[in-house]
Amino acid sequence: MKNIKKILAVIMAGVLASAILAACGGSGSAAPATEAAGAAGGVLKMVTEATFPPYESYEGGEIVGIDVDIAKAIAEELGMTLEIEDMAFDSLIAAVQSGKADIAAAGMTVTEDRLKNVNFTEPYATGIQVIIVREDSDIKSLDDLAGKKIAVQTGTTGEIYAEDIEGAEIQSFTKATDAVLEVLNGKADAMMIDNEPAKAYVAANEGLKILEEEFAVEDYAIAIAKENTELLERINNALKNLKESGKLDEIVAKYITTEE
Ligand code: ARG
To answer: pTM for this one?
Structure first.
């Protein structure tokens, strides 16, 4: 299980290296693509996967959450109208790559692997990987997960970590909600997911708890097509303004109450 830490170190080293490369302009993709996924027509098209509260979830048929509010604020800064489409998490990167969408905002962790296919904006939040189990479970830490049934959302970093656990049987679901149910119903022993959605799901479903062990700290950022460097720059500027004006903190505070 020590592998996980090693893998993480490798991921982070890779992310750093890519960031440095990008900063030096050494990544080699200088020319704008001909059919760049532009933001023409004043519409900023966002894709997300909305079973991830408080970042994105449905409320009365509408997608709401931190990512939605941040994207709205960005669109406002850019004088554009935000349009949102919900899809499977593991389709988001392809949607951005193909130009079907301008941005993917989905509590998405910056990883070396994803950086091969898309660019990421500056990070706007931090996520921590945690483990959800039933209240009466005797699983107490990551080490107890060996050989267990672990539910995850398809394509997430939680799935990657679960794959590294010895003898674990991974049950992968398109919707995070279905993975939570699997634990609740006793069909899986644990779920690996980010801390804020974990808190939201544990609060909404009696009989679940979050283990204290936090085993990975990740950066969330918005994914944009590699060719679309102009939009990347404009969104980074908008994000900077939102950070400096306190608007970003305001959005987060609306959804997350910190009692530390
Ligand atoms: N942070 C994790 C990842 O990037 C999970 C994100 C899941 N997001 C969602 N909207 N379902 O893999």
So the answer is: 0.86
